[in-house]
Write the structure tokens for this entry.
Amino acid sequence: MANNINLNANLVRLPQELMDYAIIHELVHTKIKHHGKEFWDLLVRCLPDALELDRELDRYWVMLGDFPEEY
Ligand SMILES: [Zn+2]
């Protein structure tokens, strides 16, 4: 099974911690394709600050005016 990780070009403009978060988020999607409870449980296990970073990243996408398709 092919796992495609789509990293948006705007990621290079993000602060390091948000870039790390976005990459881990995509890596978790290689195992879990949806945003259900299972996904967040695994993500928080990988990165305890995941929920907070996710909110912060949302604000960045708004600022950049460019939402990734899958996010
Ligand atoms: Zn996602």
